[in-house]
Amino acid sequence: MENTLGLEIIEVVEQAAIASAKWMGKGEKNTADQVAVEAMRERMNQIYMRGRIVIGEGERDDAPMLYIGEEVGICTREDANKVCNPEELVEIDIAVDPCEGTNLVAYGQPGSMAVLAISEKGGLFAAPDFYMKKLAAPAPAKNHVDINKSATENLKIISDCMNRAIEELVVVVMDRPRHKELIQEIRQAGARVRLISDGDVSAAISCAFGGTNIHALMGIGAAPEGVISAAAMRCLGGHFQGQLIYDPAIVKTGLIGESKESNIARLKEMGIENPDKVYNAEELASGETVLFAACGITPGTLMEGVRFFQGGARTQSLVISSQSKSARFVDTIHMSDKPKYLQLK
């Protein structure tokens, strides 16, 4: 799958990032999201594959989004039998977030990116549009930290596993009222807190890379993004756990579903009998082969944002593969017109 789709999925996230970046700083978060969606859909429909969106947006309306259940790729067309060889057909499940951090783009803030994860059919957990309690940590702490332990306990474990003082650790937490006590506990334990307004996929993945000065992600964020983070962390060998949060009273913000009871009923309809189950990365991204790709829209910890120049743009992307056990940073110059010069920096 990597040999067939590796370069293609890089171009998918690149095109989404370029489209969204044109709206950076204009205060139009919905437009920045919509153009990214349209660019991602257009490029995916040029790939010889039969793809199905298992994590997307627009689940309950007709908004111009990549919605759950949507089929993409040349081999989903009505004339697929004429253009696709069944013996070479690649059937995949896709999780997408065309503009992860729409507010970050709208207000010109760092950390937004276009992102997707793919696996063979059935290889990605079809997370509902709920919230998820998350714990991400570096590889040395994998299977030592646990989402059911307190933040204080997990920080001590990370400290021991990495041979670093707790005071040297940095934990990323979403800046939300629901995290008031969590933030207080982390600080009392001695670690430092980096608050973010959006974009916890980047924060989770950063835990797996030395030099990012991010050692853990804790707290509650969107469940679909949790699956995407898990796909990357599975490939990287980092620690990731997620537990669905279905009670609106816990997250203190809107959920699909009006009550805890209706959300539990919806989970059962989706085949999730134990709503409190804790999932690890291998369960959320269980496919034999998993690919993750992201492209920076605005500058972030891992990647530069899109940089425009006369006649083109420059992007930086990250593609991670469980098949080749690799993480590639891809620097690309896109020439829209004949440029007078190529921008190197």
Please provide a written account of the structure.
The protein is of the alpha+beta class. It has helices at 2-21, 29-44, 80-83, 102-106, 151-162, 180-189, 200-206, 223-236, 248-251, 260-269, 281-284; strands at residues 50-55, 71-72, 91-100, 113-120, 131-137, 170-174, 192-196, 216-222, 239-245, 278-280, 290-296, 307-309, 312-321, 326-335. The protein has two domains: 2-122 and 289-335, Fructose-1,6-Bisphosphatase, subunit A, domain 1 (Fructose-1,6-Bisphosphatase, Chain A, domain 1, 2-Layer Sandwich), CATH 3.30.540; 131-284, D-Maltodextrin-Binding Protein, domain 2. It is 31% helix and 26% strand. The strands form two sheets. Strands 1, 2, 3, 4, 11, 12, 13 and 14 form an eight-stranded mixed β-sheet that branches. A hairpin with a 2-residue loop joins strand 12 (307-309) and strand 13. 48% of the residues are buried.
- SS-based class: alpha+beta
Unreliable spans are none
Number of strands: 14
Radius of gyration: 20 Å
Domains (count): 2
* Shape call: globular
Beta-strand share of residues: 25-35%
Task: Specify the CATH class of the largest domain.
Answer: Alpha Beta
